[in-house]
Structures are given as C-alpha cells and as structure tokens.
Task: inverse folding
C-alpha cells in the first residue's frame, strides 16, 4: 500500500515518491564514506546503473570477500541495496561473491535473462594459490543463465593440495606464507619473533569458539548424509562447522585450555547481517567473561570453477586424510576501526608456523584482507576456514583437530 498526503492545493503526493530519492542519496553518501577514494570514483561513475529497476550502489561491506575482487579488471564495484549482495561487474558479467549464497535466488532472479553472471568463491588470491581459479557456480536451487544440477556431480570434484610454490606474490619468512591482499606492509619474520599481547592466566575461560556462518557444511555422503536447503549448507549441527568446532573445543580442553563454544547459527534466517549478529553475541559473552583472550570463528571455504568443477583441498598426514585449513585475517584498511590488527596477525602467524613445522601442508597460505571480520573484538581473534564444501566431514574434523593442537601449542608456550 502506498501512503499518500494532500498538498495545500488539494493535490496528492505519495510519501514513497518523496522518500525514494532521499533514500537513494543517503545510500550514495554512505557508499562514498565506506569506500576508498578510488572506490568513491567508481560509485559516482556507476550511480545510474539499473538492474530490474533497482539502483546499484558501490559500497564496501565488512563481510568475507569484500576485497576478493581486488586486482580484477572490473569496471564497476556494485552492491544491490535491497539484498546487500556484494558484486563486481567486469567483462560483460556480474560476479557475485560467495557470501551472497543465502540470498542468491533473490539477486539471481533479477539478473537471469538480463545480464550474464557467475557466483565467485571467497578463496583469496584470485587463482594465485596452486593455480586454482576461484570462480564459482551458483548454489543449487538458484536461478541462473547457466544452471548446474541441484545435486553435486562427483565426477566434477577435483582433489588438490594448495601450497605456495615460491615466495613470489607472498609476504614470507621461515616457511610461513601470507597472501597479502592489502596495501599494508607485513614483516612476517618480525611478527614471528614478537610476543603475543596476552597470557592465559587464572581459571578462564580463555577461548571463545563461534560460527558467524554456522550453516556452512560439508559433502553429504554415507553416514554423514544430510538434507540441505542450499547446497553445502545445513542448520543441523551434526554436519556443519559447529560439529567441527566441537572437535576444536575437545582438543583445547584436553590441553588444559578453557573454552566457551557458541553453537548458535548466525547466518539464519538470513545470511545478511550474520556478522552483526555474531558481533552482538561476542560482545555480550566478553562482557560476561572478560577472561576471554582468543576468539576462533570457524568457517569452511568454497572452491568451484564456473565450469562446475569443485575443488577438495586435502593432504595426507600420518596416514589419514585431512582437509586443508586457511587462516583469514583482517585489517582496518576497509574503513572500519581495527587498530590492533597486527597483534591478531602475530598470533595467527605463530599458529601458521606451528602447523608448518608439525603438519606439513595442513595450512594453506594465510590470507590478509582489508575487511576486519569482527576481529577487533580481541587481539587473539581469527577466522579459520576448515576445508571446502567438497571435503568430507571426517577430513574436516581431522584437519580441525590438527589445527587445534597447533593453537594449543602456541597458547601454552607464549613468547
């Protein structure tokens, strides 16, 4: 229903007609404030873009993938305000970040038949790691100009082991590689040699495990088969990253580290706002338990090419297959305050070094990005991506267990 009011001369003005341009102007101003100066120019050049009658505004969101399109030959960075899907337009296509999976059908229905588009994974490096190009097919049940089957095609799953072949393209030292997707200078050797900014003292709890995208799950097969709503996602905590978090909790507890595991699902009922909801939970928990020093946000990645080939990053350790893990670390470069990001990175690099020393190739290179991912909440905050949607749950559990042992080793012997 459209709300209307009468003018003094008896005419009719629809309130929505007044608010629409005001809202558009406000969104544009917000976009300019959030963007870098280069991004602001993009906003101004693309303000008139329209898809299905909806204005597209350039903006920078504090969500994974916010910087994944850096280095692309994209002419315009776009965001569709009504669904907050991060996208990039380039070479005649719309590239939608993996983070829009949960509301992908909304945007997909708008784009289908109008503009060619693909969904991209948030794998860092735009294909520089192991030669994998992170272009993703749409999630199942989403409308697309090139739809894929609603069920996974086992013949299109390719196993890989992601590794840094040489230091070119990385900040590296002592076998630790950082894919730096920011303009920040990182002294890996110096950070490895520095002391972490806290010690675990008193009774704790000292570690908070949380899942901003708790519905992220693994390959549905055998005894670990589950009903998914969107491919690779379920709220059943027996099969998603919450189950992986349980294993991390067990290992840390066995090593004498007290843990709080928040098993809530924050990307439901909507993927949008998941980081906001998670931050509210983190803040509330830290107010109750100020002893918390480390926050581990457990995710899983997605690596799918536009041809539908799905990648399973796996490595064999002590005769058992483990999903590779990846630490994703934020900075304040995206515009949101994060003054102590270097302290977070220091801890992450020490954990990365422990994994490299004890479990060769378990860890993919650390990914440093401009977004902050709620990591400003504590100087021991991190995201760990455990495997991808094509890893088995058993592979993910084993990879998480080895990761947790590395975390415990660093926290119990700080320097």
Result:
């Amino acid at each position: 229903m459209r709300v209307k009011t009468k003018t003094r001369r008896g005419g009719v003005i629809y309130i929505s007609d007044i608010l629409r341009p005001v809202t558009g102007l406000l969104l544009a101003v917000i976009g300019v404030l959030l963007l870098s100066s280069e991004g602001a120019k993009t906003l101004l050049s693309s303000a008139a873009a329209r898809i299905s009658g909806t204005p597209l505004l350039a903006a920078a969101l504090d969500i994974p993938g916010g910087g994944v399109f850096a280095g692309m030959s994209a002419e315009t960075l776009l965001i569709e305000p009504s669904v907050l899907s991060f996208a990039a337009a380039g070479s005649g296509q719309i590239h939608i970040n993996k983070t829009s999976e949960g509301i992908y059908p909304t945007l997909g229905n708008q784009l289908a038949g109008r503009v060619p588009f693909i969904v991209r994974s948030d794998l860092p490096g735009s294909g520089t790691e192991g030669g994998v190009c992170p272009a993703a097919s749409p999630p199942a049940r989403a409308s697309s100009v090139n739809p894929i089957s609603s069920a996974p095609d086992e013949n299109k799953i390719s196993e890989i082991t992601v590794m840094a072949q040489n230091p070119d393209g990385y900040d590296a030292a002592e076998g630790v590689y950082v894919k730096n997707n920011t303009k920040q200078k990182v002294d890996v050797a110096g950070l490895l040699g520095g002391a972490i900014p806290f010690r675990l003292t008193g009774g704790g709890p000292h570690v908070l495990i949380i899942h901003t995208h708790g519905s992220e799950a693994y390959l549905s097969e055998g005894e670990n088969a589950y009903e998914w709503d969107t491919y690779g996602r379920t709220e059943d905590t027996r099969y998603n990253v919450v189950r992986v978090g349980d294993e991390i909790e067990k290992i840390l507890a066995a090593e004498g580290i007290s843990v709080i595991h928040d098993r809530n699902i924050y990307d439901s009922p909507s993927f949008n706002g998941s980081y906001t909801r998670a931050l509210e939970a983190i803040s509330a928990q830290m107010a109750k338990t100020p002893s918390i020093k480390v926050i581990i946000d457990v995710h899983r990645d997605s690596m799918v090419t536009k041809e539908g080939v799905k990648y399973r990053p796996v490595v064999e350790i002590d005769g058992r297959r483990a999903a590779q893990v990846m630490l994703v670390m934020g900075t304040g470069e995206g515009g949101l305050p994060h003054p102590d990001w270097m302290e977070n990175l220091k801890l992450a690099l020490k954990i990365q070094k422990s994994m490299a020393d004890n479990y060769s190739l378990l860890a993919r290179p650390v990914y440093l990005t401009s977004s902050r991912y709620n990591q400003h909440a504590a100087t021991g905050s991190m995201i760990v991506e455990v495997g991808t949607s094509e890893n088995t749950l058993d592979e993910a559990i084993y990879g998480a267990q080895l990761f947790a042992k590395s975390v415990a080793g660093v926290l119990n012997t700080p320097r």
Notes: The first helix runs from residue 15 to 34. The chain is about 25% helix and 20% strand.
